[in-house]
């Protein structure tokens, strides 16, 4: 697994800070932990892959480097008379908040098996943040989950469409690619 795959698996951009890597790993580990998904072998595999990616990134990104980049020594010094004025949140902070609120809602919809609503939600977010790799990954996973549900409902042509959409949305995600290939094998066995 190369570094790009590690960042992608954790839903991060290359060069992410140590704190972001740690936070993303913890969030995803809670989601895919075998104790939470005892009968889901794919969740277990995902958890193992996440842990391997996290360990590899920890070898490359040290917390000291990140702290030095953003330490107070690089910030402009203020004299005691100056009082900092509170800055309004910039657009990227607002979008980041929107992104994570949407992610939480997406998780709820997927757990409730409201797949068309989940897909609409993540597609709208992808239109708003078209360059965001995490959003693309979420969108691809939503397509894949819906494709699997369609297989279970014996709607095979429609399932094939959504599985192809998953691959097209996040083509560099090797883990997703392998999972979708398994889904296609199931379809081939049925046809």
TrEMBL record:
Record CDD domains: DnaJ
Region (Disordered): 65-92
J domain location: 5-75
Residue ranges of TPR repeats: 140-173
Key words, A-Z: Chaperone, TPR repeat
Pfam families: DnaJ
Keyword Chaperone: yes
PANTHER family: DNAJ HOMOLOG SUBFAMILY A MEMBER 3, MITOCHONDRIAL
UniProt-recorded name of the protein: J domain-containing protein
Species whose genome carries this gene: Aetokthonos hydrillicola Thurmond2011
């Amino acid at each position: 697994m190369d570094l790009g795959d590690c960042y992608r698996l954790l839903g991060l951009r290359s060069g992410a800070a140590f704190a972001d890597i740690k936070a993303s790993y913890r969030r995803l580990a809670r989601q895919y932990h075998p104790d939470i998904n005892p009968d889901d072998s794919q969740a277990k595999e995902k958890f193992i892959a996440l842990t391997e990616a996290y360990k590899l990134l920890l070898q490359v990104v040290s917390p000291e480097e990140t702290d030095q980049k953003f330490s107070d020594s690089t910030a402009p010094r203020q004299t005691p008379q100056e009082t900092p004025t509170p800055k309004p949140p910039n657009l990227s902070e607002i979008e980041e908040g929107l992104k994570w609120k949407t992610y939480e809602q997406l998780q709820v919809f997927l757990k409730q098996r409201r797949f068309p609503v989940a897909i609409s939600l993540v597609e709208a977010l992808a239109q708003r943040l078209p360059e965001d790799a995490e959003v693309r990954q979420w969108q691809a996973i939503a397509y894949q989950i819906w494709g699997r549900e369609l297989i279970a409902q014996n709607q095979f042509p429609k399932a094939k469409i959504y599985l192809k959409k998953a691959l097209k949305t996040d083509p560099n995600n090797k883990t997703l690619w392998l999972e979708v290939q398994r889904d296609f094998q199931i379809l081939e066995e049925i046809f």
